[in-house]
Amino acid sequence: MNPDMHGLLLAYATYVVAAGSPGPSNMRIMATAMTRGRRSALALAAGVMTGSLFWGLMAATGLSALLAQWAGAMSTLKLVCGVYLLYLGFKAGRAALTPDPAGPAAGPAAPPDTTATLYRLGLVMHLTNAKAVLGWIALMTLGLGPSANWTTVAAILAGCALLGAMIFAGYAIVFSSAPMVRTYRRARRWIEGALAGFFTLAGVQLLASRS
């Protein structure tokens, strides 16, 4: 059985727009790339991609649709995600208020996060992203037309996995380049301040949407 090509193209286009647009996960990948380098950002991106595929599988099997209809579960998910975003906003705000070290006398640098830690951070960020649940449900609804079959589902998941890897890894690679790193060093406190505002606003909006 051949997949529904119209549904596939619609699903791919929807995923590219959703995954590529600025959001908590992409903003954190960018910041990690500029502050910790390409390897760390790629580890974070891998965690985000894993979380995205998890919700994709849930949507494909219909479980996330059931979750979306259960108001209590969605409310809890939004609460967890909102609080987590506020925490990220607090951390970014504290970093923005911290002056740049004057030199070696400023003390030793904090030990870098391990690859596993950054992977888990990306995974948790996306697993607690309530919008990802609804986004995948919408994507599957658009992609699975009347003539869709199981090969269409598999093609949607495989294609979105490839597109997601390109998008998230692309952010990690581009924003870890030398010009981006130099830009970050010159405007670190402004960038961290912008991140703090973004995460705080996103968290407040998500918590407000529970009502």
Automatic annotation (TrEMBL):
**One Pfam family per UniProt:** LysE
How does the entry describe its membrane topology?
Answer: Multi-pass membrane protein
One GO CC term, this protein: plasma membrane
The organism's superkingdom is given as: Bacteria
Indicate the segments annotated as coiled coil, or none if absent. Answer: none
What's the main place this protein lives? membrane
Q: Which UniProt keywords apply?
A: Cell membrane, Membrane, Transmembrane, Transmembrane helix
Residues crossing the lipid bilayer are: 6-29, 41-61, 67-87, 130-148, 154-178, 190-208
Q: Does the record's keyword annotation contain Cell membrane?
A: yes
Q: Where in the cell is it found?
A: Cell membrane
Q: What is this protein called?
A: LysE family translocator
What lineage, starting at the top, does this entry show? Bacteria, Pseudomonadati, Pseudomonadota, Alphaproteobacteria, Hyphomicrobiales
